[in-house]
Amino acid sequence: MDNELWRWLWLGLAALLGIGEVLTAGFFLLPFVIGGGAAAVLSWLGLSPLAQWLVFFGVSLLSWAVLHRYIKTQDSDGQPQVGANRWKGATGLVLEEIDQVSGDGLVRIFGEEWRATVEAGQENIPTGDTIEVIGVEGTKLVVVPRS
Which of the four pLDDT bands, split at 50, 70 and 90, describes residue 42? Predict the structure, then answer.
């Protein structure tokens, strides 16, 4: 194949993988997009297809290593809690006694009222006590007394 065809193959591959990267989660395809772009540049410079393939794999590997370092740092920060899970670790006030038998009670956390329950084997938590949220079961917060 002549270099003219390789030019368009590399550009097409980089564009196709770039579109795939936009449509998928994470940065899985981005190193290959960068590698394809580097190989396309070499094809426009007239280098051999073997050099283009070597650069494609080399640049893809190098860009994966660099991106992996930044992605790993970003992931170590933890994901923000959303929904009811954002209340884990929060403290609140018991508005209605939390009964272990019925598994029901009412708590206020940061101005919001939530139904709450305690884990099996825990004692009832009376009205006016301070609690800490340790989990979420369906639409109820699982709480323990805060000492």
Answer: very high
Residue 50 confidence (pLDDT): 92
Cβ(133)–Cβ(141) under 8 Å? yes
Q: What is the DSSP letter of 40?
A: H
In this structure, how many other beta carbons lie within 10 angstroms of the beta carbon of residue 106? 15
Which residues, other chains included, contact 97 with Cβ-Cβ below 8 Å and sequence gap of 6+? 105, 124, 125, 126, 127
Model confidence pTM above 0.70: no
Q: How far is CA 10 from the centre of its chain?
A: 31
Alpha-carbon dihedral 17, 52, 41, 12, rounded to 10 degrees = -30
Mean pLDDT for 78-98 is 80
Q: How confident is the model at residue 76 (pLDDT cuts 50, 70, 90)?
A: low
The candidate with the shortest Cα–Cα distance to 128, out of 97, 104, 100, 103, is: 97
Tokens standing for 17?
């993988």
